[in-house]
Design brief:
By secondary structure, the chain is of the alpha+beta class. The chain contains four helices and 14 strands. Strands 1, 4, 5, 6, 7, 8, 9, 13 and 14 form a nine-stranded antiparallel beta sheet that branches.
Amino acid sequence: MDALPTPTAAPPVLFGAPAPPGDLLPWAWAWAWAWAWAWAWAWAWAWAWAQQRLIAARNYWIATTRQDGRPHSRPVWGVWLADGFWFSTGSLARRNLAANPQITVHLGSGDQVLIVEAIAAAVTGAEKLQRFLAAYNAKYDWDMVAIDDGVADSSGSAGPAYRVRPRVVFGWDTGMRAPTRWSFAT
């Protein structure tokens, strides 16, 4: 597993201007007590708010781009693991991602917002899909298994599995409180 690095947090650009300085949202629920400086604790804590929501969400919205440039958006089930967001789809998104792997992943709330900008990569092979399938099947009480070119369930629905590794994540809390932009090293 190639875990995601801890991202850096900064205020985003909102409505064409930098967001005013202030609180940033947390990303992970882990305090880095080994760090000596108070600013470093706040930075490490900066993942708690976002990561908790990405893990707990039941439904995620993905947006891809059709070959003619039109957007395509749809809900999917998925799981957030240490190395990114994993999902499967047999929809139009499959063709879109084959031509252009850029994707956004959104949660359903318009109040506590998270927008993940990323690259999606198809993943095959039972060994590589093992953690995804275990987490997905437990989360949704489902029966998905690995097949040669992706995943399938007992109803016969099949499609590719994707791992989405974020480049940038935007988030803000109710009332656009604490707008935050997290950047991941690539």
